[in-house]
Here is the input.
Amino acid sequence: MATKHDTEALLERQALKPPPLYQVALLNDDYTPMEFVVAVIQEYFNKDRETATQIMLSVHRYGKGVCGVFSKDIACTKVEFVLTHARKAGHPLQCVMEEV
Here is the structure.
Protein backbone atom coordinates (compact mmCIF):
# COMPACT_ATOMS: atom_id res chain seq x y z
CA MET A 1 0.00 0.00 0.00
CA ALA A 2 1.32 3.43 -0.95
CA THR A 3 2.27 5.80 1.79
CA LYS A 4 1.68 9.53 1.88
CA HIS A 5 5.35 10.08 1.07
CA ASP A 6 5.13 7.79 -2.00
CA THR A 7 2.08 9.63 -3.25
CA GLU A 8 3.74 13.03 -2.83
CA ALA A 9 6.85 11.82 -4.65
CA LEU A 10 4.75 10.50 -7.52
CA LEU A 11 2.91 13.82 -7.85
CA GLU A 12 6.20 15.70 -7.89
CA ARG A 13 7.50 13.53 -10.74
CA GLN A 14 4.41 13.92 -12.85
CA ALA A 15 4.16 17.13 -14.80
CA LEU A 16 0.53 18.03 -14.36
CA LYS A 17 -0.86 20.02 -17.21
CA PRO A 18 -4.32 21.50 -17.59
CA PRO A 19 -6.85 19.56 -19.61
CA PRO A 20 -7.17 20.51 -23.28
CA LEU A 21 -9.75 23.07 -24.33
CA TYR A 22 -12.14 22.77 -27.26
CA GLN A 23 -13.68 25.46 -29.39
CA VAL A 24 -17.30 25.02 -30.43
CA ALA A 25 -18.11 26.30 -33.91
CA LEU A 26 -21.13 26.51 -36.18
CA LEU A 27 -20.72 25.62 -39.85
CA ASN A 28 -22.42 27.34 -42.76
CA ASP A 29 -25.18 25.78 -44.83
CA ASP A 30 -27.55 27.22 -47.42
CA TYR A 31 -30.77 26.39 -45.57
CA THR A 32 -30.67 27.46 -41.92
CA PRO A 33 -32.08 30.99 -41.49
CA MET A 34 -29.69 33.61 -40.12
CA GLU A 35 -32.19 34.58 -37.41
CA PHE A 36 -32.28 30.98 -36.17
CA VAL A 37 -28.46 30.91 -35.96
CA VAL A 38 -28.45 34.16 -33.97
CA ALA A 39 -31.09 32.77 -31.59
CA VAL A 40 -29.09 29.55 -31.08
CA ILE A 41 -25.93 31.49 -30.29
CA GLN A 42 -27.78 33.68 -27.80
CA GLU A 43 -29.50 30.74 -26.11
CA TYR A 44 -26.71 28.17 -25.89
CA PHE A 45 -23.63 30.39 -25.71
CA ASN A 46 -25.03 33.31 -23.67
CA LYS A 47 -24.00 35.97 -26.18
CA ASP A 48 -25.75 39.31 -26.54
CA ARG A 49 -27.57 40.01 -29.81
CA GLU A 50 -24.75 42.07 -31.32
CA THR A 51 -22.07 39.44 -30.59
CA ALA A 52 -24.36 36.64 -31.79
CA THR A 53 -24.95 38.54 -35.04
CA GLN A 54 -21.20 38.97 -35.56
CA ILE A 55 -20.63 35.23 -35.05
CA MET A 56 -23.50 34.44 -37.45
CA LEU A 57 -21.95 36.72 -40.08
CA SER A 58 -18.64 34.91 -39.65
CA VAL A 59 -20.47 31.61 -40.24
CA HIS A 60 -22.13 33.08 -43.33
CA ARG A 61 -19.04 34.76 -44.81
CA TYR A 62 -16.25 32.37 -43.87
CA GLY A 63 -18.07 29.06 -43.45
CA LYS A 64 -17.41 28.80 -39.72
CA GLY A 65 -17.96 30.85 -36.59
CA VAL A 66 -16.49 30.08 -33.18
CA CYS A 67 -19.06 30.44 -30.39
CA GLY A 68 -16.81 29.71 -27.41
CA VAL A 69 -13.99 27.69 -25.87
CA PHE A 70 -14.76 25.08 -23.20
CA SER A 71 -13.54 21.95 -21.47
CA LYS A 72 -14.24 18.73 -23.39
CA ASP A 73 -17.40 17.72 -21.50
CA ILE A 74 -18.99 21.15 -21.73
CA ALA A 75 -18.10 21.52 -25.42
CA CYS A 76 -19.58 18.10 -26.19
CA THR A 77 -22.77 18.94 -24.31
CA LYS A 78 -23.17 22.26 -26.13
CA VAL A 79 -22.70 20.56 -29.51
CA GLU A 80 -25.38 18.00 -28.65
CA PHE A 81 -27.82 20.67 -27.42
CA VAL A 82 -27.37 22.77 -30.57
CA LEU A 83 -27.73 19.79 -32.92
CA THR A 84 -30.82 18.52 -31.12
CA HIS A 85 -32.44 21.96 -31.16
CA ALA A 86 -31.66 22.46 -34.87
CA ARG A 87 -33.05 19.04 -35.85
CA LYS A 88 -36.25 19.59 -33.86
CA ALA A 89 -36.68 22.89 -35.71
CA GLY A 90 -36.04 21.14 -39.04
CA HIS A 91 -32.72 22.83 -39.82
CA PRO A 92 -29.49 21.15 -41.01
CA LEU A 93 -27.25 23.44 -38.91
CA GLN A 94 -23.93 21.78 -38.07
CA CYS A 95 -22.08 22.34 -34.81
CA VAL A 96 -18.61 20.92 -34.18
CA MET A 97 -15.91 20.97 -31.52
CA GLU A 98 -12.20 21.20 -32.23
CA GLU A 99 -9.29 20.96 -29.85
CA VAL A 100 -7.54 24.32 -29.38
In short: The chain has one domain: 21-99.
